[in-house]
User: What shape does this take?
Amino acid sequence: MKKLSLLIVLALVALTSCNDGPKNEKPSTERSEESKSKIAAMKLAQDNHSFSRPNDAVVTHLAWDAKVDFETKVISGTAHFDIDNKSKGNKIIFDTRDLDIQAVMLDDQTPSSWELGPEKEFMGQALVVEITPETKKVSITYASSPDAGALLWVEGEKPFLFTQSQAILARTWIPCQDSPGVRYTYEADVQVREDLMALMSASNPTEKSADGKYHFEMKQAIPSYLMALAVGDIEYRSMGPNTAVYATPDLIEAAAWEFAETEDMLVAAEALYGDYVWDRYDLLILPAAFPFGGMENPRLTFATPTIIAGDRSLTSLVAHELAHSWSGNLVTNSTWDDFWLNEGFTVYFEQRIMEAVYGRDISEMLAQLSYQGLVKEVDEIMDKNPNDTHLKLHLKDRDPDDGMSAIAYDKGYFFLRMLEENVGRSTFDAFLKDYFTSNAFSVMDTEQFVAHLKAKLLDETAYTALRIDDWIYGAGLPENCPTVGSDRLVKVDEAIQKWTSGEQSSKDLPWNDWMYQERYRFLTNLPSEGVDEKMLKELDEEYGITETGNNEVLFAWLEQSILHQYQPAYPQLRSFLTSVGRRKFLTPLYRAMLETEQRDMAMSIYEEARPAYHSVATGTMDELLSWSESE
Assistant: This one.
């Protein structure tokens, strides 16, 4: 990708009146009080994925004392919650799943009566604690299970632990009110092995402590799904006044180089939609078993190492997670039915950051690839459950993970792009900046957003003309979906036609001149007919695609290798699937093996790989492959 030009940097600096990074008009303590006052005034929606009743009694602050034990694969400790007993009732309810609850105390360590409710699939159990109208604090002593859904214990001489709390897995390692609508501040004291470093979605150390003890503070209120912990042999590298990267020693130098432009992205984001309010924006590169590309934990994005390509070509993921600092972390979906309010806004913001930093040419290629994936996924979902193509979802009695599809991300993005194209960019930018500012540290549901849209941007005539209800509550893609154009990808499509028809040989393709997006487009758009194993062999021999260091390109190549049974790539396929746990890659590759009647290979690879995958990945793969432990 091209470098950020000096002119762009100067322009962004001028826009933000900021020479050294984010401008924080309010100190953290003042922002914390502001967020607390907003939270206290909020009436929360009923969350079908939480047992808690926060409108009756809600947590406001967590002081967590914990010990991480790699031998037993258990986190044990005490969660001290400050609470607001709004209704002056006699109970408060927490979410738990597979936790060993050992004791519950109130205020001055008075023992409390408590009980666990019946277990519900994927939701766990309600922890019902008896309190008094005057109770101010509840302390829960507990231990997690070695099989806790949020945790992955990566074995080795220097072991690694990381959490993945979204959507409702925080309850598997901390008893909490596990709803995106419930926000609280927190502090933590964590004991780990002396040779390891602990990090959280909070203020973080820059070097290992001598005794393995770490203290953390998060002064801005966050929901439980943004609670995060990682422990490992980790090093720190600064990338700018407000940005840094953490990684294991073998990856730290490559990561620091790969993400060196993160500070530029932060400046660009502030220029678009206002101050960054989380003080720092750092990255942690996790083991390859991490099931997602990234997770937007405040102050510390968790990221997959598969985006380290050696050429900074995959940094749009960083732009995406950074954008979540506004859309999601600052203004949060009220329940998981409103997930598009987190992700659609974030994809739109991501594209605007990429355009500001790298140019419209790059952002439009990314948008066209998103559209390509969206159309494919809409077609697949329409055959199974058309309602799941609505932006507003209905996930009651279902795992909220079911809503994490391209619909929330890319249909949401194209909806917002449609608004921008119809009202004008400057008008839409003013609307979004006001949206983030006026709703900071608040929750938002779809109906509230519609009301906000009508009050601030569209009158009834425009609302109807732009088919807003069709976008939000209707199936599929409305006819007024924006058209994305990229001359560079048009030329790639022409090259596909010429190559598959025999008009152009493999060696005459401009592969070495193409950027990642163009290579990805070429591979993902190859037709099912007209391409054979011999053609793939010629392509591979010419450009060494099986050995590429770009994991997005490698994924697309391996999928084509499966579909056309190009067996020279199969050793790399096994190596890839047994070392990478990113669900975005796993699902299409295993599915392709099933579709091409290569189930034996799929099961053989999965049996080897499964123990190293996170539960988020195995949950999806087990269903896809009809896996059972007896196989």
User: Anything to note?
Assistant: The first strand starts at residue 58 and ends at 69.
